[in-house]
Design the sequence.
């Protein structure tokens, strides 16, 4: 089964991320992208624990395990071409509170950022 990325399809920033991924994705990567509110997205989210369901985040389901916020974002590097993938180990050097803090800040204002 391919890995799944669930994004807010109504968010311009999220849609730009999906386009960026599609343009720069490795030919051998298997990643399907769905909207959170789509029929498929709702089915996947129903299977998550309550704490993960409540996250205002994109979701990456990799090898059957859900990831949210910065953990999902960093793992997206693994689906990209090699010159992006090499940044994967370095991205983990940033402390989790800092990474998720930046993610939450962008998430909170993403609709305002998208309208510009």
Sequence:
């Amino acid at each position: 089964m391919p890995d799944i990325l669930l994004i807010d399809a109504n968010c311009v920033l999220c849609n730009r991320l999906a386009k960026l991924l599609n343009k720069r994705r490795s030919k051998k990567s298997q990643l399907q992208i769905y909207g959170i509110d789509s029929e498929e997205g709702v089915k996947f989210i129903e299977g998550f624990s309550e704490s993960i369901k409540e996250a205002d985040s994109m979701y990456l389901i990799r090898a059957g395990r859900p990831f949210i916020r910065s953990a999902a974002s960093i793992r997206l590097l693994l689906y990209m071409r090699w010159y992006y993938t090499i940044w994967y180990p370095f991205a983990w050097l940033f402390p989790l509170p800092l990474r998720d803090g930046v993610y939450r800040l962008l998430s909170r204002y993403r609709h305002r950022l998208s309208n510009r």
The helical segments are 12-24, 39-46, 50-53, 69-75, 82-85, 88-91, 96-114.
